[in-house]
Design goal:
23% strand, rod-shaped, four-stranded antiparallel beta sheet, alpha+beta, 419 residues, 34% helix
Length: 419
């Protein structure tokens, strides 16, 4: 029998059924419940062991974290101590070290004060970077054409054309000075563009190093002579402008403008009456002529070509005897740009030109590059013949006597022309 004892001395409860009162099924159920409780009691130690292992692992992890935090805190304290030591008053430093630091601080302050001046100088440096080189240009290029091509890039303040110092011929290249470096950069985008059938070369110009003994580009003005070369001239320059620029140098005996196909090439040659006068003129290299800096040096004498023994040499002076009383000369190898005023001016040192005749092709009426010049006396013809071989607009002219006295006593014109 199972008895149930109540606290406080209560009597057994008669409500709980005894084993004798239980049916076979109830006994079986109770037995199964008891077995279940026993199995649960046996499994409890294993659960406790797993929980203990988990707790131990967590404890180790927390201990490790605490150790690392302590180490980090120590580093922070060490760094703080070090920083505090570095920030100690300068008064504690040795006098020599303190003075050195003060000098360094003053130098840094001076550099900061000078910074605005450096910034202010930047625009000027950018202006110097606005120079562009042009190459592979057509021979017929003009200032107006170049300004039109680069109009969208920016303002062009100066144009310089490059020419050969000895002949004065255009090199097909030059320089453009833009108002800003940005405009120059924009111009380089046109590199390779076509200009009158030629692909232009456009690139930022590199500064020319100044040579010892003079300005860049004119360290060697050439061998002194009474003739000088002028380059980079404005297309519309006048003779009066050139004479005024060199009036203090000395007397000018001749100015020769160089043209090609009737167009001025921006170069000229000037002959002075003395080497001293030409030397003074060369000293003015870079002087402003018509808004452009002129390039000036002594003109180089043309080197004679080696004679070909198998080829008859060309002569510029008459090869036959002068006819008696001759007052007219034949002039050949003339430039297409020749006119009455130019030929009269060329022979003004010989005498007075009374008449000029030009020869044209009968069919096309095109100028043949030859003509006849009449003088007021035969003595003037003698002086004019001495000018044979001299150049007019870059061409050496050929001179010959225009006619000879007619043989016989027949009437009519006493002069028979022979060409």
């Amino acid at each position: 029998f199972f008895f149930t004892r109540l606290q406080g001395g209560d009597e057994p409860s008669h409500d709980a059924p005894s084993m004798g009162d239980l049916t076979k099924e109830e006994k079986k159920a109770r037995k199964a419940e008891k077995a279940k409780k026993l199995a649960a009691a046996e499994a409890a130690p294993a659960v406790d062991e797993a929980a203990a292992a988990k707790a131990e692992k967590k404890a180790k992890k927390e201990a490790k974290a605490a150790k690392e935090a302590a180490a980090a805190g120590g580093d922070k304290k060490e760094k703080k101590k070090k920083r505090e030591k570095e920030e100690e008053p300068a008064a504690e430093e040795p006098p020599a070290k303190k003075e050195k630091k003060e000098k360094k601080a003053k130098a840094e302050e001076a550099a900061e004060e000078a910074a605005p001046a450096t910034s202010a100088a930047t625009p000027a440096a950018e202006g110097e970077g606005g120079r562009v080189f042009l190459g592979n240009l057509p021979w017929s290029v003009t200032d107006e054409q170049i300004k039109e091509v680069f109009a969208k890039c920016g303002e062009i303040t100066k144009i310089e054309w490059l020419t050969h110092a000895d002949s004065g011929k255009f090199k097909g290249a030059g320089f453009l000075q833009f108002a800003s470096a940005a405009a120059a950069d924009a111009a380089t985008k046109l590199n390779g563009n076509d200009l009158d059938g030629r692909a232009m070369k456009v690139e930022i110009a590199t500064a020319k190093k100044e040579r010892a003994g003079g300005a860049a580009g004119n360290s060697d003005p050439g061998e002194p002579s009474n003739s000088i070369f002028l380059g980079n001239l404005a297309w519309n320059i006048e003779e009066e402008t050139v004479r005024a620029a060199f009036k203090d140098c000395g007397a000018i005996s001749r100015i020769k403008w160089v043209e090609k196909d009737g167009e001025f090439r921006g170069i000229a040659f000037i002959d002075f009456e003395s080497v001293e006068a030409a030397t003074k003129a060369v000293a003015l290299n870079g002087v402003d002529l018509g808004g452009r800096p002129a390039r000036i040096n002594f003109s180089k004498p043309r080197e004679p070509r080696p004679a070909d023994p198998n080829k008859p040499q060309r002569t510029y002076k008459p090869q036959k005897e002068k006819p008696e009383g001759c007052v007219e000369l034949f002039i050949g190898n003339l430039p297409w740009s020749i006119d009455d005023d130019k030929i009269t001016n060329f022979f003004k040192s010989a005498g007075t030109v009374t008449n000029v005749r030009w020869l044209n092709d009968r069919e096309t009426q095109e100028f043949k590059g030859v003509g006849f010049v009449t003088f007021s006396s035969t003595e003037e013809v003698d002086k004019a013949v001495e000018l044979a071989g001299e150049s007019i607009d870059g061409r050496q002219i050929r001179i010959d006597y225009a006619g000879q006295k007619k043989e016989g006593n027949g009437g009519g014109n006493p002069w028979q022309k022979k060409w």
